[in-house]
Amino acid sequence: MDHSPFLALLLITVLALVVPILSARLRCFYIPIVVGEIVAGIIIGQSGLNLVEPSQTLRFLTEFGFAYLMFLSGLEVDFELLLSGGPYSSGKSF
Length: 94
Known about the structure:
Oligomer: single chain
Order of helices and strands: HHHH
Radius of gyration: 20 Å
Helix content: 55-70%
Low-confidence stretches: none
Number of domains: 1
Largest sheet: none
Distance between the termini: 60 Å
Shape: flat
Strand content: under 5%
Structural class: mainly alpha
């Protein structure tokens, strides 16, 4: 299928909106929202219906999103806890 990369981006954005809503509405079984989004991505991606083809736009957004997640996880590091030896240390610091 020869689609515009922006049409694929629109489809991904709509799925990112719809999957959490469906996950909250369907209470017969609980799955985390992230798992639902991964499954939806597999369904519309190359492994499933092949509705979204790789493009430069999606590749850039993938790499940018990964870098952003790594940045956010780096903000969660407590350097004071690391320098003090951690919560299970004997009280000696280096």
